Amino acid sequence: MVLDTSRYSNISYSNSKDSKNDGFEVKDISATVSPETNVITASSSASNEGPATPQPQLGVVASFLDSFKRKEHDDSTAGDENDLNKAIRSRHLIMISLGTGIGTGLLVGTGSVLSQSGPLGLIIGYIVSSLMVFLIIQAAGELGIVYSNVVGNFTRYPTILVDPAFGFAISFLYTIQWMIVLPLQLVTAAMTIQFWNVGVNLDVFVLASFVVVVLINLGGARGYVEAEFFCNLCKIVMLTGFVILGIIITAGGIPNGPDGYIGGKYWRNPGLFANGFKGVCSVFCYAAFSYGGVETLVLSAAEQKNPLKSIPSATKKVMYRILFIYLLSLIIVCFLVPYTSPDLMGSSGSGSHSSPFVIAIASHGVSVVPHLINAVILISVLSVANSALYVAPRLLLSLAQGGSAPKFLNYIDKRGRPTTCTLVVVLFGMIGFVAASDKREVVFTWLLSISGLGQIFIWISICVSHIRFRDAMRVQGHPLTEIAYKAQTGYWGSYVAIALALFVLVCQFWVAIAPVGAHGKLDATNFFQNYLAFPVVLCAYLGFKVYYKQWQLLIPADKIELDNNRNVYVPEEALEDKPLE
């Protein structure tokens, strides 16, 4: 195969062994073709002007303060797409794919869903959601490598590939969603600490958690990934131990245990389903929230050392997360906790044992392990808060760089941190101090209302972008060999994922207007608590259309600017036929 270079007017070729970024080093409006990765990056604006001028040595405090100054540019008024530091390595990304996002949704919120759906209803709901997530992450992995240099990553895909208004609506929703996650996790941390019946004002723990998360993120991408590596390792070890211990308890293997052999006892009485098909429908929104964060392995592509190697590996390991961490652990919970348990969140008499994972162990005569599980749940919640303070500022930065947010937010300091955006997110996180209020569970529910359903819209946007990308490749005559990693589920996998997502939206609408347990009565409060993300997306979309008077539904496939920061994979035979400069 001979590479047709006429379509890449902004690309020059080199075969330098001095590539500093594993095949993604960039020089003036050109890109390096690495002998290891064979990737060309199109239309980049970074520069390489020789050795930097030596800087004077500063003291520790002075160096710390100096790090917050704006990163130097040719254009001192704006941040550049590639200014974020590439600090994320393969080991970090693998652990992120396995554990990031595992927190409130799975470890705490599942209790409420179990009480509404019953054990089999819960498992069916998660199986449907798991299939959808697997299909989506495949599409995200393909696009994540193609556009690895774009800050904000998949939140920018719709703008480039679908429609600017749709892109703005999705970016706005996703930014708000992650900003909400921070105070949501702080409130959850306070609720988790109640397990130990501490007599201290819960806002003290919110403040302590806040300080820890902020200090971690002062380290930028490196601080985030190292903390996530440790926290996710704790989660995986805990869930592994939980599954093993749960199997032993179910089989009656606890000496002098109060229950003996349990088996399918709770599947027979009180039963498999709590509220029939509507109970199953109630699972989808919570499942989406609990899977939220799995896409951050693609969002962080701009800060990865070598996304061409790390993203495919991480996307494949998402299947292990789905099968083991979610489905297997939930099956064990369903064997050990009846859906009528008064300790489940959402049931009458709900108390401090709000996590079904803690209930599963504590209610069967094991005294020490529940404290360990609750401690790991607390670590998990703080881990998600850490992710929120990492992801949300970068999404705000992406909006600012795209002209959809104030220019003062487009600030990246010398350590590659979006400092101004981080400050805005920290201020928003102050909502978490509502934890000491008696209304904290009400606040928890309203904060969750955008996060769960909003995740579905984000996933739909990824799949629509993937379909539009493949359509544009076909119409514009680009061969698929230019794609370094192709989704294992292919082009049609995105259509299946969209169909499942639309099915989930319809089911959630039904549950929203006629909630479980309401005996068919309409409930406006419940509707907005379950469907608030939809009016947010609709208002953002229509607002953009009206403001910019842009009424085009889709960018025509032949007009899509494919080469806007696109990485082009060059097969080895094409490199052999094309002499390198």
From TrEMBL:
Encoding gene, per UniProt annotation: KNAG0J02210
Protein name, entry field: Amino acid permease/ SLC12A domain-containing protein
Localization, UniProt: Membrane
Pfam family, one: AA_permease
BP GO annotations: tyrosine transport
Composition bias type Polar residues, residue spans: 1-16
Presence of keyword Metal-binding: no
GO CC annotation terms, alphabetical: plasma membrane
Keyword terms, alphabetized: Amino-acid transport, Membrane, Transmembrane, Transmembrane helix, Transport
Family: Belongs to the amino acid-polyamine-organocation (APC) superfamily. YAT (TC 2.A.3.10) family.
Regions that span the bilayer: 93-114, 120-148, 160-184, 204-224, 236-256, 276-298, 318-339, 418-437, 443-469, 490-511, 531-548
Membrane topology reported for the UniProt record: Multi-pass membrane protein
Record field: compositional bias (Basic and acidic residues): 17-28
Region described as Disordered: spans on this chain: 1-28
Entry GO MF terms: low-affinity tryptophan transmembrane transporter activity
Residue span, Amino acid permease/ SLC12A domain: 92-552
PROSITE patterns, per the entry: AMINO_ACID_PERMEASE_1
